[in-house]
Amino acid sequence: ANLHQQCSQLLGAMASTKVTKAKIGGIDCDPKQASEASAMMFSLNTGAKAFNINCAGGERLEANKGADQLFGFARRCLADSGLPSQETSELRTQINSAELNRDDKAHRFVVTWNAFQDGNRLAYLALGIAVAIDLLVFMSGLFGANAVRSPLSDVPSFKARTAQQLEAIIENALLPDTFETARLTLQSLRPITNVSGFMAEVRPEQLDPHSAGRVLAVLNAGATIHAVEYDEARQRYLVRSELFEFLSVVAKRAFEASDHHVNLAELEKIIGVALLPDLSQN
Questions:
Q1: How distant, in Å, are the alpha carbons of 138, 179, 242 from that of 144?
Q2: At 236, phi and psi to the nearest 5?
Q3: What ranges do the domains of the chain cover?
Q4: 215: nearest Cα among 170, 239, 185
Q5: Do 185 and 218 meet the contact criterion of CB atoms below 8 Å apart?
Q6: Which of 241, 221, 237 is nearest to 170 (CA)?
Q7: From first to last of its 282 residues, what are the pLDDT tens digits of the chain?
Q8: Claim: this prediction has a pTM higher than 0.70
Q9: Which residue ranges traverse the bilayer (predicted)?
């Protein structure tokens, strides 16, 4: 301000003299940008003094024990620094970002990422354990799905059915004596050259009427799920291998589930031995 006043007075004195008036053309004492620059410089000088008094030195950091106090201290020092608005805004954004990434406030993913960036070995160990557990769960589900998978699920079909629905159709046809009906159906199968998945044939007319009725019930159920087809040219029923596999599993399961079938099988062996050497004659 004093410099501006002195410049104006000197310029006025020279303008009042004819000799010097022509020499001061174009000279202006208005500070303009110089005033703005000096104001910024004065502000920075004031801010630097306040910063040195309130913020400089490690002993002031030690006075702030918690994270909240440290972030508050950083904001106060930024306000005291007297920096221009753009620089102040950028630094304030960095402080806010650092506060949001704190482990006690940040998302778990951010906490994990911070641990990796810090080279925390426990974070790597935790990741390895998590991946191993996920793989175990995945493999258990995969093996479990294959373990409970029904052979009937492999039968080609235009209608979507679950394994439980497919098995229920066949199991219902095996009632009331599941083991005997399944065994009788298996015994009536005659192997043929595998054609399009059909590996056996059944000719019910060659069975006794009682057995033929039970076997036909199973064949009808199998035809419903496309596991059985009727060959009109040769008058026979063609059976897919999936149905044979399922009947074998059902027969074994039913046999082991009932002591009656076990005792009956043992009795048949004893009688068979007693009728030797000529079973038909005896």
A1: 10, 26, 20
A2: -150, 160
A3: 31-100, 152-274
A4: 185
A5: yes
A6: 221
A7: 566 677 777 777 777 777 676 666 666 666 665 566 566 676 777 777 877 777 776 666 666 667 777 777 788 888 877 777 788 888 888 887 777 666 556 566 666 776 777 777 887 888 888 889 999 988 887 766 555 567 888 888 778 888 889 999 999 999 988 999 999 999 999 999 988 889 999 998 999 988 999 999 999 999 999 999 999 989 999 999 999 999 999 999 888 887 766 666 676 666 666 667 666 665
A8: no
A9: 122-143
Torsion angle (degrees, nearest 10) of CA 36, 42, 44, 50: -150
Buried b (16+ CB within 10 A) or exposed e, 241-267: bbbbebbeebbeebbeeeeebeeeeee
**Tokens describing residue 231:** 């060959």
Contact 91, 83 (CB under 8 A): yes
CA dihedral sign, ordered 97, 102, 104, 106: positive
What angle do the packed helices 33-54 and 67-81 form, to 10 degrees?
150
Specify the CATH class of 152-274 in words. Answer: mainly alpha
Cross-strand bridge partners of residue 239? 200, 228
